[in-house]
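User: Can you fold this complex?
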Amino acid sequence: MNVSKKAASIVPYTAGEQAEGYIKLNTNENPYPPSPRAAEALRGFDVDKLRLYPSPDSAGLRAAIAKAEGVDADNIFVGNGSDEVLALAFAALFDADEPIEFADVTYSFYPVFARLFDIPYNTVPLNDDFSLPFDKFNFYNGAVIANPNAPTSLSVPVDALRAAAERSRKALIVDEAYIDFADRTESAVRLTSEYDTLAVVKTFSKSYGLAGIRCGYMIAGRKIIDAMRAIKDSFNSYPVDRVCEAVCAAAVSDREYLKDKIQKVKNTRSRVISELRARGVAVFDSDANFIFMEGDKSLYEKFKSQNILVRHFDKPRISDKLRVSVGTDAQMDEFLRVFDKIR
Ligand code: PMP
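Assistant: Here's the predicted assembly.
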């Protein structure tokens, strides 16, 4: 029996381990629970409603996101995690005859999506300091920029994205999975009404503490949103379920709670970065809910033997670095205590 050539040959993305019993600093989850409004929505959920299919266009959830983001609901597309939104975007916005661009060190799902949909791509090498070399991109045939970038934790100013969107003939996808934690840049959402090439992708997995519910969304002009719907409706016309709709709509309405938890993560982040630098460790300036620091595979393994999971990528240019998600203060105190013991 032969499966498809695609399934036989594709190398899938490998997510960080979901192991129990560790201090988990390896998948950039939020250490704090989601808004109490999310819990209320779950408790109040009418199970009988699960007999019925959800809204085919996630109307209620899109309305709630629209209110929070200050955009029109018609400019929002919702999906089962931003990974799914990104995958559908590759299929909806790029073609097989022209190479798209993304950085050589960025979210490692992008090349997987490109190969899945037979989209050729060029990787643009980041500068030696891992900043993004805007002059080396042409942006003409489509590009994907994670801002802030993962795993480097660095960001680019939103004006640079404006210039890139101006040069694009196809879509410029800006992946803002970590934007809520940024101090040095801001979201490109407000530019989406000016540039019909710009597609901003966000997630409930990080700042909202809802990685387990799998919900992400895109904000873009109507032409891009219509293309996303055309592809989605050729694949699965109900991307998010009723529970997800209810929980995320409740969570997105709680701006105060969100702000408070983001600030807590940012405070812990700056403390840990200072503590590591005081120990002479090279750490990047982080605009995300993780830090990128010097440390090799053996340090990753030593952390693991001490019940702390961090992320090591066996990849060119970054195999001598570790990505460490920012946990609670107590978790990061333990991280530093263990670091002093094993380094
Ligand atoms: N973009 C980036 C840059 C990420 O690091 C992640 C998390 N792995 C995602 C998108 C996907 O997040 P999710 O599917 O949980 O929304």
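The CA atoms of residues 86 and 153 lie 19 Å apart. The first strand starts at residue 23 and ends at 24.
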